[in-house]
Amino acid sequence: MTEAIRTTCAYCGVGCGIAATPLGPRSVAIRGDEAHPANAGRLCSKGTHLGETVALTGRLLHPVIGSKRASWDKALDLVAKRFRETIARHGPDSVAFYVSGQLLTEDYYVANKLMKGFIGSGNIDTNSRLCMSSAVAGHNRAFGEDVVPARYEDLDEADLIILVGSNTAWCHPIVYQRIQAARAARGTKLVVIDPRRTETCEGADLHLAVKPGTDVALMNGLLAWCDRHGGTDPTFMQRHVDMPEDFWEHVRSGHDLWTTAKTCDLAPAVLQQFFELFAATPRTVTLFSQGINQSIRGTDQVNAIINVHLATGRIGKAGAAPFSITGQPNAMGGREVGGLASTLAAHMDFAPDNVARVGRFWAAPNMATKPGLKAVDLFRAMDEGRIKALWVMATNPAISLPDAGRVREAMASCPFVVVSDIMADTDTSAHAHVRLPAAGWGEKDGTVTNSDRTVSRQRPFLPLPGEARPDWWIIKEVARRMGWRNAFAYDRPAEIWREHARLTAYQNDGQRLLNLRSQAAMGNEAYDAMQPFRWGGRPSRMAGFRQPMARRGWF
Ligand SMILES: Nc1nc2c(c(=O)[nH]1)N[C@H]1C(S)=C(S)[C@@H](COP(=O)(O)OP(=O)(O)OC[C@H]3O[C@@H](n4cnc5c(=O)[nH]c(N)nc54)[C@H](O)[C@@H]3O)O[C@H]1N2
Ligand SMILES: Nc1nc2c(c(=O)[nH]1)N[C@H]1C(S)=C(S)[C@@H](COP(=O)(O)OP(=O)(O)OC[C@H]3O[C@@H](n4cnc5c(=O)[nH]c(N)nc54)[C@H](O)[C@@H]3O)O[C@H]1N2
Ligand code: SF4
Ligand SMILES: [Mo]
Q: pTM of the prediction?
């Protein structure tokens, strides 16, 4: 029998390990990888049925220009030429990439490098904008870096788990199973904070049907309760947390139990039950996702949760953490390479010394010096005629962005649209001048990072179908044709991984926790054999430096 190939599920940020055994052409048996730390062999129904996705029905199998099949050379030359001409005529900010948490870290790295270092614009944003840009901003504000200070093992070691704005039973089923296992094993209590009574509430001890958009008030009410009942941790705060002077003054006014209950539309007795449970349980993990992130107050909501954990010392210890869980399989990898318009690369922002550092590392001729357009603004700018060439990779904004009708109109009016996708016909590719066939799951080769910072390999076990090519290959071929041959001379994903690792370590004397120094000299064979690993070590290391409280915006 053929040996199973260890890879990672393509569906969500839990990042479950998979053992895939090829059975014949386009046929594979799927089971959970017992040795993977994210799932220990378990799979949800989506992962279990991954084998059914490897058929070629509907796949895009060769490049298409207009509605005609084209050779790779012709298609790549055309993309490079049109981007070059647009930049020459209208400047670097007249072009944009809209990319995706479905890309692998290596794909993402090359796309980000091309846009921010060589084209010279910050105009690369990602569908992860829709899920977690608030989480990124919240972590940056609280910790000075986009670090999620949690591990899945914390769920096994917690006595209380709070799910805020997260329908975990549906959206992150293996995390939910892990929570239920902790309940069975150690009597862990589960509280769900969600305006709707979802399936996730069925397995909970308490459901708080909070009024939508009042989570900041709820968290500050909890903090005020802890303050009043001796539930904060002054020693921890003194050691690790920079508090704005008026912090407690704000918390203490207007956040008593009754006011909070009224604001959140909750019965005071139920709220008190929750506060008491929290105050009595040092080992608490608060998981949150879209009910927190996808909000006009998303960042404040994230910080309100993190602040509760900082002020009560429930962070950096076994079973205690604020835990943002991610949606897409590689949303975290995208955050690490800087795939958002508001970040630069390797957890650095656009501060001048960062721009200079990354520019030196890349030997970049045209470093972007400021953030680019974020997803919604990007398509708005296109609608106004300011973006004249767009390249969409691994996402379907024509239906997934807010105000999708306007997004479709914007793309229809854009002079040049390129779409890289695995499928021939998507709502977005209907607007494409050039369609490029990408490699899909089972064919792709590279790494992904899951919600708890575990990096895993996605390994190919199927040949590339038709003329499909990996995304990193497509991007570097365009970059080379745009004139940057040496900077994009990659032959395999391992080379890109090493470069990414070197950049995280470059002139990094501890300022950035994301430091993959140990990976930087890894050989090709070691890359192929890479075992899942979590960067940043144990979260306790992270609490060892001063963590400023968010300074504004939490009220
Ligand atoms: N089956 C399946 N699983 C998926 C995906 C999929 O498409 N299908 N997609 C993946 C992706 S990309 C993502 S981002 C994740 C999303 O995973 P989740 O974040 O769990 O997704 P939602 O269903 O949006 O759940 C958000 C919850 O927040 C609640 N909510 C709304 N407003 C508020 C509020 O103001 N306060 C609070 N406290 N709660 C609120 C909603 O009622 C809802 O139950 O799922 C991932 N998993
Ligand atoms: N109404 C509504 N809208 C939403 C949401 C919602 O809950 N409700 N959720 C939002 C959220 S959280 C998210 S994450 C977004 C998701 O929205 P999208 O990013 O649009 O998600 P998908 O439909 O998964 O699109 C992924 C595309 O990538 C292609 N693809 C898959 N793998 C590869 C690959 O390796 N390479 C390339 N080049 N292409 C590939 C697929 O064929 C598909 O066309 O939607 C957001 N929009
Ligand atoms: S929980 Fe997510 S990563 Fe795990 S098997 Fe299900 S879809 Fe895949
Ligand atoms: Mo998402």
A: 0.96
